[in-house]
Each structure stands twice: as C-alpha cells, then as structure tokens.
Design a protein that fits this description.
By secondary structure, the protein is mainly alpha-helical. Helices cover about 45% and strands about 10% of the residues. It has a single domain (about 15-125), classed as Uracil-DNA glycosylase-like domain (Uracil-DNA Glycosylase, subunit E).
Length: about 130
C-alpha cells in the first residue's frame, strides 16, 4: 500500500451527498478490498460532539451505517445515561471493515494517517460553510 495513490480533496466537494459518493467510490488504498461498502459518517452536521470508531464491524459493513452493531448498542446506552441524543452527535468510522484486520501494522498506520488527513480536510471544509 502506498500514499502515492490518488487522494480526493474533500474541500472541493460542496455537499455531504458528494462526500458520501466519494466514500463509496474510494480506492485510495487496498483496504476497500473485501468490504461490502464504505461506511459514511452520520449525524448532526452542526454537532458539538464527533465520535470516531476504529473500524466498521460486520453489522456496519452490511447496513452501511456507523455504530449499529453490539458496540453501537453499548454506545446508545452510554449516550442515554449522559443525556445526549444520538441525533445530536456526528458519528463516523475510520476505514472499511474486515480489510483492516488482515492489514499489517504499516498498512494500519498508513490508513490512520490518511484518516487523520481526511478529518482535517473535513474540518476545514465544514468550517468554510
């Protein structure tokens, strides 16, 4: 896996729909192979809280939504106890599901570097709106 692969700039996309399409079509690294789909973040675009999960699990890969599996149920309980509505939070995940499990340590680190760069782009894009 190499960072020399094409990387789309989020700042040029002017809608969450186009960002969703970019996630669905992303082939910037090998981690998309073997996944059912990319899982786009969801929630309030003006959220004061963003939760980032490490990777989609089986349920997220099948359903295409973040935090819908067993960990999502635990998260929902925690949010409820804290008095935070799930709809008030933006939730996302770092990469495609099972692919990260078969990646070696260098590939996982590279994927995390790409994810951090993407988060910075998204933050810059959202702050410019």
């Amino acid at each position: 896996m190499s960072l020399d692969r094409p990387h789309a700039s989020v700042a040029e996309r002017l809608s969450l729909r186009s960002l969703h399409d970019a996630v669905a079509d992303c082939r910037a690294c090998d981690l998309w192979e073997g996944a059912t789909r990319g899982v786009m973040g969801e929630g309030a675009t003006d959220a004061g809280l963003m939760l980032v999960g490490e990777q989609p699990g089986d349920r997220e890969d099948i359903e295409g939504h973040p935090f819908v599996g067993p960990a999502g149920r635990v998260l929902d309980q925690g949010l409820e106890r804290a008095g935070i509505a799930r709809d008030d939070v933006y939730m996302t995940l770092t990469t495609h599901p099972s692919a990260i499990l078969r990646a070696d340590e260098a590939e996982r680190e590279e994927a995390m570097d790409m994810f951090v760069a993407d988060l910075r782009e998204v933050a810059r894009w959202l702050s410019a709106r």
